[in-house]
Specification:
The chain is built from 17 helices and 19 strands. With 494 residues, it is α+β, with helices and mostly antiparallel strands. A seven-stranded mixed beta sheet has the order 9-10-8-7-13-17-16. Strands 1, 2, 3, 4, 5 and 6 form a six-stranded mixed beta sheet that branches. Strands 11-12 form a two-stranded antiparallel sheet. Bound molecules: inosine-5'-diphosphate and calcium ion (CA).
Length: 494
């Protein structure tokens, strides 16, 4: 048998050259490709590590703001880019959650008050990316409800809320971020919110809009005035909030007239009106005999035998506005001896929010959605159906978050509501909550009196009722927390 010849290494390479080439060439090409490729990290979508305070990471910063209102608690979460534009949180431009009642309903039990915020906190945290939570500030602003309770009780509640945030939250938190907002801050934040969403910040004061925010406990008026008018503003006396605040926004100096009227929010005003009326009330819908509780006081709320009367009820609302009015020591006053700010271009476009919108929406129905034939007939009978908007009853466009109306629309709606007894009103206004029904005439008459007699707005002036303001591809709540978040985000990203 012929023995195989012993091959040398060069011979072997020569014999297997095809295999060697087939293995080494692709390997060489692969290494060359990897060598020339741009050096990107292999992990996916890393959040940039350079982070500034205020939940800032790369180009995003978050802010969580609790609105502890007198009639309910709400949480808003906003996300801003580095130019302070709102960015998406899911499909929306904010997270907004609410629950009732507000903190002041738990005056006797601060722990329960704080616990009422826990579900809102959980929801808010869930939309902030985990790695940003300890950089994201959480603030709580309480408004008229806690202002009414007095310092000791409200401080106990705020302390319980601070403990909740300290122990149950992973957000960035400082004890002095949980406060009772003063009314002028609240009004100023509301003005910033609406003007920001409308894209008016950075423009001359004359191109901004004025705002009225009718809460449950207080109502705020805020609008920008000229520098010259600021110089003429009456100086605040000791203990009074100053009438004008200076705000520097988007490179522009604004002089903002703001006043908050405690006890003149919609729910508080009912108590004021019930106080000035005697036995049979002119505002309570016919057939209702009960009582109204506001704060820790209860008022008799009983209809007169002839039912409600719009004109008498409006007079009572005006009496409540003027009740114990101190002399007007300023050039021109609204009510309560308060300077009216002098008016001007910053007030010519007025955006009117909160309960103004809510009540208007509740007395507006789409025929096809809500009305039975019997109800329709009743509404025609009472002339509820307006020829200018034949597709609906009432005066706003229910499908839109903003509507152009006139103060006179509230008068007209009040006149119609006041004619009804409580049973008929229930059928005519299925959207009005049962516990608000007896007060429907009172609420609408007060809203009209507040605008026309309180703030001296012409009954025929165009005003905008607003709940949300369209911004980008979504709408954002027209409420003060956005103004507060803008302050937080701009101070932490500068
Ligand atoms: O985010 C919001 N969007 C629209 N309306 C709001 C928002 N938050 C509160 N409101 C409105 O504010 C009114 C309640 O006032 P609130 O309870 O805040 O009283 P207060 O401001 O006197 O403390 C309601 O009409 C409610 O719909
Ligand atoms: Ca409010």
């Amino acid at each position: 048998m012929k023995r195989a010849r012993q091959e040398s290494i060069p011979d072997k390479i020569h014999r297997y050259r095809a295999v060697v080439l087939a293995v080494t060439v692709p390997l060489f090409l692969l290494s060359l490709f990897l060598f020339l490729m741009p050096r990107t990290p292999t992990t996916i979508a890393v959040v940039r590590t350079k982070q500034r305070p205020g939940g800032y990471a790369g180009s995003k910063s978050y802010a969580v703001i609790f609105d502890a209102g007198s009639s309910g608690s709400r949480v808003h979460v906003y996300c801003f880019d580095e130019n302070l534009n709102l960015m998406h949180i899911g499909d929306e431009l904010e997270l907004f959650e609410q629950r009732k009642p507000g903190l002041s309903a738990y005056a006797e039990d601060p722990q329960q008050a704080a616990d009422s915020l826990a579900p809102l906190l959980e929801k808010a945290e869930s939309v902030v990316p985990k790695e940003l939570r300890n950089k994201t500030p959480v603030r709580v602003g309480a408004t008229a409800g806690l202002r009414n309770l007095g310092t000791e009780t409200s401080e106990r509640i705020l302390q319980a809320v601070r403990e909740l945030l300290q122990h149950k939250s992973s957000l960035k938190f400082q004890p002095d971020w949980v406060t009772v907002l003063d009314g002028t801050q609240e009004g100023a934040f509301q003005w910033v919110t609406i003007n920001y969403l409308l894209g008016r910040l950075g423009k001359s004061y004359a191109n901004t809009v004025g705002v009225v925010d009718l809460g449950g406990g207080s109502v705020q008026m805020a609008y920008a005035i000229s520098e010259g008018d600021d110089e003429k503003a009456p100086k605040a006396l000791n203990g009074e909030d100053s009438y004008v605040q200076k705000l520097f926004l988007k490179g522009t100096q604004y002089y903002l007239y703001v006043h908050s009227y405690l006890h003149f929010g919609l729910l508080a005003s009912r108590a004021e009106i019930l106080k000035v009326t005697d036995e049979g009330n002119n505002c309570i819908l016919g057939g209702y005999h009960g009582s109204y509780k506001y704060g820790d006081k209860t008022y008799k709320a009983s209809a007169s035998s002839s039912g409600a009367s719009f004109s008498k009820c409006k007079d009572d609302a005006i009496k409540a506005l003027r009740n114990n009015e101190p002399a007007c020591t300023h050039m021109k006053c609204t009510f309560g001896g308060i300077w009216n700010g002098g008016g001007g271009d910053g007030q010519k476009n007025l955006f009117v929010a909160s309960f103004f919108f809510d009540r208007a929406a509740e007395v507006t129905l789409l025929h096809n959605v809500f009305l039975t034939t019997q109800m329709y007939t009743r509404l025609v009978l009472h002339k509820f159906i307006s020829s200018s908007r034949p597709h609906q009853v009432g005066f706003i466009d229910r499908d839109k978050p903003m509507s152009n109306v006139k103060p006179a629309d509230f008068e007209e709606a009040a006149m119609r509501a006041c004619q009804l007894n409580v049973e008929d009103a229930k059928a005519a206004f299925p959207l009005v909550q049962a516990d608000n029904l007896p007060y429907l005439c009172m609420d609408l008459a007060y809203q009209y009196a507040l605008l026309v007699d309180g703030f001296a707005i012409d009954a025929q002036q165009d005003i905008t009722l607003v709940k949300q303001v369209p911004y980008g591809d979504a709408s954002v709540e027209a409420a003060w927390p956005l103004g507060s978040a803008i302050e937080v985000a701009s101070s932490s990203s500068s």
